[in-house]
Amino acid sequence: METSYVLKIPDKKFQDFHLLFCGYAVCEPLHHFGPAVRPNYIIHVVLSGKGYYYVGEEKYTLGKGQGFLILPDVLTRYEADEEDPWTYIWIGFDGTNSMEHLRNIGIGADKLFFQSQSTRELEEVVMDMLQYKKLDVRDEYRIQSLLYLFFSLIANSSSDFYKEETSKENDYITKSIEFIQTHYNEKIKVTDIAHYVSLNRSYLTTLFRKRTGVSIQQYLAQFRLTRAVELLALTDLSIEQIAESCGYSDPLVFSKAFKREKGVSPTKYRERERLEGMNTREKREGLR
């Protein structure tokens, strides 16, 4: 159960970006909506309490001052907390430029959540929208201006939040790289790294690629091979020992990965490096 107030807009004069509906709800414990697929965009902003947002198999906890985006044609579900059920506002909108407007305020398919310091103002905007029952031309323009005001308020508060988020994201990447460089010789998985930095696996995977340009698996493989190159050049360890030291349980898998990256087998690489080293020393001796 929920106590809610809803406005639905019957006509759409602004095809590029327009409000479809909006509402305010005080939810009962465990009140939920979905699983469902929506044909349009919806933004919810939590005014008090907390609840849970499910996208696919992922679960996210949200509280006061946080908002979430529902994308068209994506299966989602959201539910109020049992002990501290949330109260929220929402707007539904659509139009050919909707995604562009979302990107402008830092929200989109890769960032479904945001933090707002303007929840009271956002609530007032929705309450103003709810006052319009019978819409004439003037009212439709007023509604449109309120839609832009809603987005403006999110943009105002999300700019500072974006700076904080960027700093946090950099910390996550730094910690992930530190973990890889410390445990590269073990049988580590992406889930191990995600657990270490306390992040959802899929989110960390997306974030890592965005910040570094490569996947976590690619970075790990490249780091292991970099260490292998050092060991081949500087030690007399066998290929099997180097493979094990770099996290490869199967020397054959290591050799194939090495050749794919360097163009030659580990053995050939070592021979070439040592031959070049000898030639360099001979040239130096000749100059004395």
Automatic annotation (TrEMBL):
Keywords on record: DNA-binding, Transcription, Transcription regulation
Database matches in Gene3D superfamilies: Homeodomain-like, Regulatory protein AraC
SUPFAM superfamilies: Homeodomain-like, Regulatory protein AraC
InterPro entries noted in UniProt: AraC-bd (IPR003313), Homeodomain-like_sf (IPR009057), HTH-like (IPR037923), HTH_AraC (IPR018060), HTH_AraC-typ_CS (IPR018062), Tscrpt_reg_AraC-type_HTH (IPR020449)
Signal peptide: none
Annotated Pfam families: AraC_binding, HTH_18
Ranges where the HTH araC/xylS-type domain occurs: 174-272
DNA-binding is among the record's keywords: yes
Stretch list, region Disordered: 269-288
A GO term for molecular function: DNA-binding transcription factor activity
Identification of the protein by name: AraC family transcriptional regulator
Organism this protein belongs to: Priestia filamentosa
Lineage: Bacteria, Bacillati, Bacillota, Bacilli, Bacillales
